[in-house]
Amino acid sequence: MSDAPPTSPETEARVRASYARQSLMTTLGAELTEVRSGEVTITAPILPLARQQHDVGHAGLAFSIGDTAAGYAALTLMPAEAEVMTVEMKINLLAPASGDRLVAIGRVIRPGRRIMVVAGDVWAETGDQRRHVAMLQGTMIPV
Amino acid sequence: MSDAPPTSPETEARVRASYARQSLMTTLGAELTEVRSGEVTITAPILPLARQQHDVGHAGLAFSIGDTAAGYAALTLMPAEAEVMTVEMKINLLAPASGDRLVAIGRVIRPGRRIMVVAGDVWAETGDQRRHVAMLQGTMIPV
Amino acid sequence: MSDAPPTSPETEARVRASYARQSLMTTLGAELTEVRSGEVTITAPILPLARQQHDVGHAGLAFSIGDTAAGYAALTLMPAEAEVMTVEMKINLLAPASGDRLVAIGRVIRPGRRIMVVAGDVWAETGDQRRHVAMLQGTMIPV
Amino acid sequence: MSDAPPTSPETEARVRASYARQSLMTTLGAELTEVRSGEVTITAPILPLARQQHDVGHAGLAFSIGDTAAGYAALTLMPAEAEVMTVEMKINLLAPASGDRLVAIGRVIRPGRRIMVVAGDVWAETGDQRRHVAMLQGTMIPV
Hints:
- 4 copies of one chain form a homotetramer.
- Chain A is built from 3 helices and 6 strands.
- Chain A is an alpha+beta fold.
- Chain A has a single domain, classed as Thiol Ester Dehydrase, Chain A, CATH 3.10.129.
- In chain A, a hairpin with a 2-residue loop joins strand 1 and strand 2 (39-44).
- The longest helix of chain A has 17 residues, at 59-75.
- In chain A, 57% of the residues are buried.
- Chains in contact: A-B, A-C, A-D, B-C, B-D, C-D.
- The interface between A and D is small, with 8 and 8 residues.
- Strand 3 (84-93) of chain A pairs antiparallel with strand 3 (84-93) of chain B.
């Protein structure tokens, strides 16, 4: 489905090892479902513990998985010893986060040695339908 | 400490009742520590369940409490029957979220009938010192 | 080249009439080169009067044409009597704005009655090559 | 009026020399009215050549002077040989840009060696009154 090229097994292992240390992803039930070169997908249920006052997913849930997907997309294009940090991220919320699950796709728009510009989209899936619930645009740096 | 005027008991009760329904805030251990007119403070520990790969608070933690504080700041200035929704939010991360606790202060920059422009700051406190860890700027609407 | 459907002659005329009143676009030499449904293209030279200190296009040039393209993209999907206003816009700058001309494409991501989420890209063209110089994400409202 | 400390004559001269090369500022009639350490003020008329369709200042005008003020605020805190570049900037528009003149104040929120987080406000002044018309938050880097 994705046009992004595959990444190397070493890079995928590096991303997965780092992701496994993010306790917030575990708390949210979020899984790293695809690691490609410059594009990472995270899938999360909308757990009862991650809701806002109307009982749909909190903006912080969409942000957290979107930001993380975008950050690891950047990491796939960084040198092997680098780690990634979010400099800034903007999210526009398009629709309530309700449905069976959220799928966040992060991708690198412009890889740079000092600065990586990234983007992300979050979709809510219900059965075989999906709705666009959030859109992100941000900046990552290697640390 | 704050210059913001107090809010009415009815408004504070309305904000607290809505906040209590946000399960993500409960999950993060976040408490609504102050409700003033146009300014709301949320305090959260940096729980082991809300970390990123370097074991400091995840960007999603700072975002979640900053966005929520800004949203409820907007709600204090909305009509009694209104609820608040985030249209968009941007966060710049200034320093790692480590320390005893995070304190997020959200405030209304420009109240409008259709659109409320809000801002927020997140501080990490350790003992009696604090460090500025994030800055947010966004838009809320009544729904 | 674009997948966006054509717009009606009435809508195109409405967009062009409004655009013609934007003196900043005239000052910048910017032309409305395509009006489709939910997608508008503006083309501008990088005039000597619109540069920054390194003699390439100012961030304000890329912002101005990107914001305007996104705003008119939103207007194509609004009721006939509406006018459009920018609520907020974020721009990430990807590369210096140098070359023969800039081309800004604005598009609607999510049309809503109260809020329209828009995005834009700005490209620098030199001969038959183009470079991605800026990316925008924002919010428009009908007024 | 400002709490920001004064800058050195060398730094002010460096900022003014760079600003003088920004042709867009000249086109907009914008003047560098104050250079302090980490805080820069630019004042601009709302020229007939910089308007949008309702004959008030274009969002691109507020953005251009706000971004430039924030960039030079960052430059005051950079090493003598550095130049400054905008990585990203977000603007929320609060009110129409009408009045006698616009005043943009840019300031550094967090100076860093690699990344500077900046903010800005744009005010419209009419007689001795002023109205908050825009608020900016962004990232600058030395180049």
